[in-house]
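A further point concerns the way the authors explain their paired sequence and structure data. An entry of this sort, consisting of the sequence and the corresponding C-alpha cells, reads as follows:
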Amino acid sequence: MYSFLSSRATVIMHRAPSVLAALLLAASLRPVAASPASRTGNCPVGIYQLKDGSKLDVGAGSGGHLLWRKEDGRTGLLTRDGKNTWTSTLGWTGRPDGRHVSFDCAEETVNFAGLSGKRIPLQVTNVTFQGAGVHLAGRLVMPPGDQRIPIVVLVHGSEHESALKFYPLQRQFPAEGIGVFVYDKRGTGKSGGTYTQNYLLLAEDAIAAANEAKHVAGARAGRIGYQGGSQGGWVVPLAAKIEPVDFAIVGFGMAVSPLDEVREATAFDLTSRGYGPDVVAKAMHIADAVSTVIVSNFRSGYDQLAAVKAQYDQEPWFKYVRGDIVYYLLETPESKLREQGPTLLAGVPANYEPMPVLRNLDTPQLWILAADDHDTPIAETERRLRTLQAKGKPITLAVFPHTEHGIYEYETKEDGQRVDTRNPEGYFAMMRNFILNGRLGTQRYGDSTIYRPTTSTTGASAIDVSTGAP
C-alpha cells in the first residue's frame, strides 16, 4: 500500500504471477479483439447494469476470490460458497455484509443481493506495443458505438501486480462512455522488461501507451489524458509535460520528493497520535538514516541505521514509526535489505523534485488527496498545489476527509491498524466528470472539499473553494 513499495491506485493489490518476457516477445503485435471469457479467464468478471439503474463491477481477486465495486464507492470481497453463488464482506473488513451474489455465465447475468443485472457489452482490443525499449502488454476498452469519445490511460503506482488483471477502472469508465487504455507496467504481468521505478522510463512508457491508444482507437479517439495514483503522481505530470495531453488525474500522489515523503510520513505517524515537535525531531534521525541507505541503493548506511534504531527502539513512540518505507528498513535484517532493496526500489530517483515540472505544466489537472494518508501525507503537497493554483495553473484539488491511501474510508482496529471499508461517495463521479467535461463544475462530490481554479473579472487568478458537507 506504500508509494515506494506498492500502491492501491485503483485496486486492492493481490500477488499475480509474471509471464516470461520471451513469451511476450513471441506474441503477435497485431491487435486482437477478445471475447468476454478469453479476455478475463473468469466468466463473472465484468461490469453489469443492475435493475435499479446502478452499475456493479466484478473484478478478479487472489485465491479464487472476486472483488465488487459500485460507482458510489461501496465495495467488498466475494467468496464462493456454491457452484455459482458467492457471499460478500463489508469492504476489506472480513465481516459478512449480508449480500449474496450469483452469476449465470451463459446468460451473462448477475443477481446481486436480490437485484438482477446484465453484463454491459464493451469493445475490447488486446495489444502488445513498444514502450521505451521493451514490449508492453496493453488493452483498449471502449463502449459500443462509433462516436468520438475521450480516452484515459491508466498509469500505475509502484505495484508489481498486473494492471490488466486487477484494474477495475478499465470497465467502470467505459460503462460511462469513456475509453480506457490499460497496460501492464514493465516487468509485471504480461509485459516484458525489468521492473523499475525510474520515473522517466515509466513516463516514456505512459507516452507510448497514449500513442498506442490513439492509434488503436482511430477515428473514435477524442480528448486523451492520464489517470494515476500514488507513485503515478510523479509519473503522470512528467509524461504530460514531455508530450502534452488534454487532462491529467492524480490520486493520493505527492508534489514533494520521495525522500521528503519519507520524512513527512514519519512525522505524520507521530503527530497524528499527539506527539510533539521534540519527538518528531528524534524520529527525523531515523528518517535520515533510512534515506542514507536508500540513496546508496542499499549498499551502505547500515551502521547509521543500526545506531538510531538502538538509540530509540525503547522509546514509547518508536512502535508507531512506519514512514512509508521506514518500517521495512527497521524490521528487515541487513542481509535481506542488501539483497531485496535494489530490486524493490529499482531505479527510484529518491531525490526527484516534481515542482519544476508542475510549475511549467499547463495541462488541466485534477489532484485527489486523502486527508488521513499515513503513506503520502498531504500537508505540503496541498500547500504547493494551492500555491500553483494561485499562480494561475489549471489545477483542481479535492480532499476527502477520513480517508487513507487509495482514497479509502476506513475503520481503526483496537491495535491501531486500519481496515478499509469503501471509497467515499463522489470519488468515482469526480474522475468521470473531469474526463468527460474537463472540469468539475459546482456540484458536490460527497464530503470532499474542492479547490477549483477560477479567473476573476479582472483577470486575476482566484481559488473557488467548496465542500460537500451540508
User: Anything to note?
Assistant: The radius of gyration is 22 Å. The first helix runs from residue 21 to 25. DSSP finds 14 helices and 22 strands in the chain. The mean pLDDT is 89.
